Structure of Nucleoside hydrolase:
Amino acid sequence: MLIPHLGYAAGAASALAESPEKIRVLIDSDANNETDDQHAIAYALFSDDVFDVEGITVNKTRNGGDVREQMKEAVRVVKLCNRYLKVPLYRGANGIFEDILPNIDMPYFDGYEAVNFIIQQAKIKSDRKLVLLPIGKLTNIALALARDPSIIPNVKVVWLGSNYPKPGEYNMMDDLSAVRYLLESSVEFEMVTVRYKDTVNPGGTWVIKAYQEEIFRRMPGLGPHLSQSVTGRHGGEFSCFGDYSKSLFSCARQHGNPPYRSLFDVGAIAVVKNPDWARSTVMPRPALVGNGWEERPDNPMKMIVWDDFDADAILEDFFGTMEKSGSK
């Protein structure tokens, strides 16, 4: 669903005037990848006492199909949160930053809808900086900054990605060129670490483990109930997000005993909502060499790295937010 730029811009400006204390956020997601994006989007939308979610853009990573499939899943979640037509959704890039970059001065390039929307929102006059929350690859964000560098002072990027200080990680590996561009940009940049199964440097968002039993016990029936059901990506009909959450956890491969899935992306939403739920470290920006990190201690450009997440506090707030969103 694409909302015309000019028509939406006026509505967004009005919304900003009505809620000056809330945090402006724009989520960029590979929504159909696994199960954590859906829960992060719902968590942000239902945290409407804290966030103004100005829109959701999608991108393609290696799982979950192309941007059309990513968009379908984002639409499902937004509908199940009863925010459809209230929160704009835009398709972004299938490809990677370095391949798309030569074409960004053209009117139509891979990801142009999302990129133009990001730029549009960043240019809205506000005393509040727009927080860009990419919870997938960084392609759409890097393209927006490259297409219109004038937005850099108006935004902060809080990215869910990397196993820093170790190499690799899914979101990072899906567009290394975009990560390198952000590291060399003057944009305010924060990195929410994943550290998947890292026992040497634990504390990334991998520790935010939602156990299947708790999802099955607490989520069904939660959220606004729709009069018209939504077909899930695995089939079935759903009228609230809580029931869809159970379906996602039923169909996804689980880890461990008792079985769980990590809600990595929820961690990125959580540290914007309450920075006390993790540790932030200001450090010189390293270089990304291959898929690993090279420290640059004399680099005057800084970034924030988030780790040591309080998984219990984050999950309790997640479930509490879901419970406040609608009755069973």
Q: What stands out?
A: The chain has one domain: 5-10+21-208+262-311. The longest strand covers residues 51-58. The mean pLDDT is 93. Residues 5-18 form the longest helix (14 residues).
